[in-house]
Amino acid sequence: MREGSTVIEVCMPTWESEPVLKSSLTKLAKSEDNSEVTISSLRIIDNNSEDQTVSIAQRLAEKFGWNLKLQSRPCSLPEAREIAINSVETEWFLFLDDDVRITQDYLSTLVEAISPLTGAVQGRKAEKISSNQVSKRISDISDSNTDWVRKRSFRGGTHATLIRTEAARGVDFPDDLHVWEDEYLRRHIESSGYIWIFNHQSIFEHESQDRHPPSWQEGYLQAKYKLRPFWHVCLNLPYALLTGKSPIGYILMILGYMRGTLDQP
Predict the structure, then answer these.
(1) How far apart are CA 196 and CA 19, in angstroms?
(2) Are strands 67-72 and 118-131 parallel, antiparallel or unpaired?
(3) Which letter does DSSP use for residue 152 in this model?
(4) For residue 129, pLDDT beyond 80
(5) Which stretches does DSSP call E strand in the chain?
(6) What is the pLDDT of residue 213?
(7) E strand or H helix at 186
(8) What is the pTM of this model?
(9) Cα dist. 175→75, 79, 172, 182 in Å?
């Protein structure tokens, strides 16, 4: 452990992560080497993967000198996050998705944003998407910092976010909330008196596996738990039409949202 370094755990939910895990963990190790951050352990919460996810995690944790803490059990993504929050032993931990690749200075710029009121620091995504045989990189980096924060701040994200353990403790994700648990966590942290920071200097890439396409149920949950305003949901439809995406999922999301308003607690 480097003297004066910030000690964190890294918590990663996994499921059939063989295609992306090596790249994600290798980038994590490079960022650790380039920062005053020490990763004390890698905490994997695996949803009973049947591929090489576990063996890859074991091999790379040993290679990079991380104490591997592995739990393998059937669980949804929110359940995995809740298990991690209740298990971490360090003051700070990093939620890192299995398909995220962080930059070399990512950890250092996250830690530099910490203050006594900081509950979480979220980085800025540069997303790679593919359509048919055309692949291009679409990045928010083209936006000004102010515009990015304004557009992004409607939803907290946990792709690669540094979390104060004390601020996250006590979160209880509803049983039916299988998506948007990140915004639910953000609201829990903010209601605890802490600040959620959007840090435009910390950049990561997300090799999205499209595990949660837009759907009726997503809209329903957004409304039921008041996680997103209706006008913002409706904006998805013209966006889909302008970008050539299928509008069907977004239409279903709008209908689900309308239904979800009837079941708000």
Answers:
(1) 31
(2) unpaired
(3) H
(4) no
(5) 6-14, 37-46, 67-72, 92-96, 100-102, 118-131, 134-139, 160-164, 195-206
(6) 87
(7) helix 181-191
(8) 0.90
(9) 11, 8, 9, 14
| Strands, E assignment, 48-115 | 67-72, 92-96, 100-102
**Quick check: 210 pLDDT over 70?**
no
User: 143 and 220 in contact (C-beta within 8 Å)?
Assistant: no
Domain boundaries, the chain: 6-206, 216-263
Residue 78 has φ and ψ, to the nearest 5°, of: -60, -40
Q: How far apart are CA 57 and CA 47, in angstroms?
A: 14
Token pair, residue 41, equals: 């352990």
Quick one: tokens of 208?
A: 């999205």
The alpha carbons of the chain give a radius of gyration, in whole angstroms, of 18
Q: What is the pLDDT of residues 168-186, one digit of tens each?
A: 999 999 999 999 999 999 9
- Helix 248-260 vs helix 216-224: crossing angle, to nearest 10: 30
Question: Regarding the domain delimited by 6-206, which CATH topology (the fold level of the hierarchy) does it fall under?
Answer: Spore Coat Polysaccharide Biosynthesis Protein SpsA; Chain A (3.90.550)
